[in-house]
């Protein structure tokens, strides 16, 4: 009989800390249960499969983005600066487990994980939607479609760059993000 009934957040935090040591691929849910002095049934009450931990991790980053959106200063900023602030908050949330975050994405991209890849596309769309909403974007119809497409490209380029260059600081990430937000048709759409 398990001696603890951990919360979803406690399970996620434990899995992340264990993965920091062994890597996401080598992380097993029975090890998370053992670390929490619990059993697999307690884990399954919150997470039906390992990938749901990945989704919970990105949900946490989305919540950090939405928390930043509550900042009293945000509405007074330009559209470009709002987008910058929000995406930097999203990345900052993931920074504590940056290497594991990259490993999670590689896990999702494995050839046999088509179901995870489709979920990954939905995740990207969901995060970009929250990013736009939190940035108070109001473009409609074709302008909205163009903006969403361009922001998705900015989001992916920034995220991949952030993952591949862990020694770069926030200033460098902000500079890359600003450059992308100020270039091409996106600059015109953000006016």
Q: Any overview of this molecule?
A:
The protein is mainly alpha-helical. The protein has two domains: 8-46, Arc Repressor Mutant, subunit A, CATH 1.10.10; 76-190, Tetracycline Repressor, domain 2. Helix content is 72%, strand content 0%. It has helices at 8-22, 29-35, 40-44, 51-69, 79-94, 98-109, 114-134, 141-164, 170-181, 184-189. The longest helix has 24 residues, at 141-164. This is TetR/AcrR family transcriptional regulator.
Brief account:
The chain is an all-alpha fold and 191 residues long.
Tell the overall outline.
elongated
Tally of extended strands?
0
Helix percentage range = over 70%
Tally of alpha and pi helices? 10
Percent of residues in beta strands? under 5%
The CATH H-level superfamily of the largest domain is: Tetracycline Repressor, domain 2
Average predicted local confidence, pLDDT: 96
CATH architecture of the largest domain: Orthogonal Bundle
Oligomer: single chain
Determine the CATH topology of the largest domain.
Answer: Tetracycline Repressor, domain 2
Tell me the major beta sheet. none
CATH class of the largest domain: Mainly Alpha
Q: Which runs of at least 5 residues are low in confidence (pLDDT < 50)?
A: none
CA-based gyration radius: 18 Å
The total domain count is 2
Protein name: TetR/AcrR family transcriptional regulator
InterPro entries: Homeodomain-like_sf
């Amino acid at each position: 009989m398990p001696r603890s009934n951990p919360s979803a957040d406690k399970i996620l935090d434990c899995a992340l800390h264990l993965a920091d040591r062994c890597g996401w691929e080598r992380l097993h849910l029975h090890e998370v249960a053992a670390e929490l002095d619990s059993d697999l049934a307690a884990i399954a009450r919150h997470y039906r499969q390992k990938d749901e931990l990945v989704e919970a991790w990105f949900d946490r980053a989305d919540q950090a983005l939405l928390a930043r959106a509550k900042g009293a200063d945000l509405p007074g900023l330009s559209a470009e600066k709002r987008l910058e602030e929000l995406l930097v908050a999203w990345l900052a949330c993931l920074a504590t487990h940056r290497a594991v975050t990259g490993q999670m994405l590689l896990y999702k991209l494995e050839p046999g994980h088509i179901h995870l890849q489709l979920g990954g596309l939905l995740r990207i769309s969901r995060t970009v939607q929250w990013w736009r909403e939190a940035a108070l974007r109001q473009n409609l119809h074709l302008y909205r479609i163009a903006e969403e497409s361009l922001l998705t490209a900015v989001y992916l380029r920034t995220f991949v760059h952030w993952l591949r260059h862990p020694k770069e600081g926030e200033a460098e990430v902000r500079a890359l993000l600003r450059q992308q937000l100020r270039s091409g048709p996106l600059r015109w759409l953000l006016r």
